[in-house]
Target: Cytochrome C heme lyase
Amino acid sequence: MTLFWIASVVLVVFSCILIALPIYRQKVNNDEALRDELNKAFYKDRLSELQEEAEEGLVEDQQDLIEDLKQSLLDDIPAQKDNANGSSISPMAVLIPSVIVVIVLSYGMYMKFGAHQEVQEWQQVTANLPALSKKLMAPEGAALSDDEMRDLTLALRTRLHYQPDDSTGWLLLGRIALANRDVDTAIGSMKKAYDLEPKDPDVMLGFAQALMLSQDDVEQDQARRILGELVKDDYVDLRVFSLLAFDAFERKDFPAAIRYWSVMQQMIGPQDSRYEMLSRSIENAQKQMGQQVGTGKSVSVAISVADNVSVDPNAALIVSVHTADGSPMPVAAARYPVGSLPRTVVLDDGNSMIAERKLSSLDTLMVRVRIDSDGNVATKQGDWFGESEAVKMGESVTVVIDKQY
Model:
């Protein structure tokens, strides 16, 4: 704002200079001197004419005519001087009122028609950016009014214009656009944040969330890859599994949706108010699969390793569910890349070994987890493993890999 006023003062001063220059540089017209010269020339010409007329005998009283001519010349001098003195105007008498008019008109017209009030409000909104950002990021951020959201958007755009490398600002602008269902702005803002901080989990999640709303299959595939990286890096956030579950449900991959929602249930526990909502989502997915509500069950397994265990990143992770008595024959099993540990996996009826005996038929169970280093399930020599205690179906299962065959 200070820069604006400085620029306006410079422009006004320049305008005043343009007014002053013609006043002080105007050519001085000395009318008195010009009239004297003219009168002298007229006097001399008339004297010459009288002389010629006298020589020709046309004039008898030449001397009287010369006296009259001199008298008329003298009579013209005082009147001419008075007239010249009466018309004299000081340059300052013209300059000062002109400068005052320029200044009053310039700032008066700006105050009236120059959006002065809007500029002031813009400056106030920009200064209020930290407070608005803090309010948005707080748990009660959803309470922001429409006016506050517009103010925050304006302030962010202003800041990002001057600081285009602010990844946090782009992320915040993208979140506002998501809240307003402005998909194009959300994707564009989140992409700028992602280009600046491609490994930041919050930025990755925000960009994936924006891409999920796109109608472009390529962008949706990119969102799935980003979410897969978050899960692989063990970025434990309910929103990651929520996006994966929503995407799976939209693609009619109902077993996958059920698994993700089940993981969310295990993460929040039955005491959380969202638990029942997730249960309804699971039941809805089961209905879509043609299953009877209440028969679909899954087992969520939290897997970790002891400090003395060395894990080959190229090994496989074999998770098997057994009856509570520890029977060697698994009821359900699944094979995963080791990835990063600790991690959580979910098994359901889709992982059952025998169609006639589903995982959901168990009342109690135990889980074994093994790191298969050679790729051969039949060989166990040297493999690390762990197993859980017997638990009831629906309870969370924890397995620590700390033993070696």
The chain has four domains: 2-113, 130-251, 252-295, 297-404. Residues 31-55 form the longest helix (25 residues).
